[in-house]
């Protein structure tokens, strides 16, 4: 008879979970008091527990605390990731401004197309043998590189705007609107990339069809959520039980995750769809249920997820400093130049254009998510995974420092001038 406790290491799961929570919480608070996003501290806590420190200097501790509970930690890793993307998806619609259609559209087109073009054609001129993962799918690799460059971390950049007191400015509105469209396109691209690795029948010439299908699913979800919101908001709030509504929201999250899995699309895209769908509902009881999920997720599941990301990073064995610097500079230049030139054409000053470039280059938490999904899918190598994660962290650090510096000089972040 199978012994559940002895075979799967269930008791060790609580030991590893406790360690992850303590280290993520402690360093998250510490980094936040240092003026840095808490995600930095949560990843740092995982780094200390993982291969970068404890596994190297206390191998017996690591072996007895984490290795027996690997299966359970893997489950929590994906639960945390699903809820992080669900919450991010629910915020997407709130970021759009009706007053800035032209600059938002122009910035989305240029800052997405340039990374795609370079990612698709430019990588053919570079030796990627040490960058590509075990799956060795070049098309999927190209898509992931483009996504890693184009993404802007809405949760982190929003927190920076809030801390600086500029969350209600036009600058914030434009950045968050562009970032929202960026992130939708990135999840579509990532869903296609992971499908390329999971399907032996999907040829390169089918990528465009898959892209259209994924976009179509997204628009169907947006259309249905809008229509259902119009019907539901007419009903009295007293008709909805808070507990049943919370159950309803959780069931919908799982439904979209399972649906996309059976459609052979990455289940993270399903979590994003669930967030977009439920984020459209203005009914207070639904928004209250989502607020409770958001609070619990960011208090428990999400810190564990980022600590596990840190746990996976082996800086001693996998950090290629030259690769990290090259990717950081190249990706920032590609994204920065596209935003800078577009902003100038739109009539913004050089300083304003540079401010937009810096803000939209802050990849942060979602950049880390892209890297982890690509690494788990075998699309990128461990060295490239580490380079993307570190680049995501550095771009957020620079964005926060630069915007704070500009404001300290008394200058406006966004100024329009005649060319």
Q: Quick one: how many beta strands?
A: 0
Order of helices and strands: HHHHHHHHHHHHHHHHHHH
CATH topology-level fold name of the domain at 97-281 and 329-408: Na+/H+ antiporter like fold
CATH class of the domain at 97-281 and 329-408: Mainly Alpha
Radius of gyration over all CA atoms, rounded: 21 Å
Biggest sheet details: none
CATH architecture of the domain at 97-281 and 329-408: Up-down Bundle
Note the gap between the termini.
78 Å
- Could you tell me the strand content as a percent range? under 5%
Name the overall outline: globular
**Contiguous runs where pLDDT drops below 50 for at least 5 residues:** 1-8
Number of helices: 19
Structural class: mainly alpha
Q: Mean pLDDT score, rounded?
A: 80
Helical content class:
over 70%
Question: Topology of this structure?
Answer:
Layout: H1 4-8, H2 10-33, H3 38-49, H4 54-57, H5 59-65, H6 70-91, H7 101-121, H8 138-150, H9 154-164, H10 170-198, H11 207-232, H12 242-262, H13 267-279, H14 284-312, H15 315-318, H16 321-345, H17 350-360, H18 364-376, H19 382-408
Summarize, please:
The chain is mainly α and 419 residues long.
Tell me what you see in this structure:
The chain is mainly alpha-helical. It has helices at 4-8, 10-33, 38-49, 54-57, 59-65, 70-91, 101-121, 138-150, 154-164, 170-198, 207-232, 242-262, 267-279, 284-312, 315-318, 321-345, 350-360, 364-376, 382-408. Helix 10 (170-198) packs parallel to helix 18 (364-376) and helix 16 packs across helix 19 (382-408). The longest helix has 29 residues, at 170-198. The protein starts with a helix and ends in an 11-residue tail after the last helix.
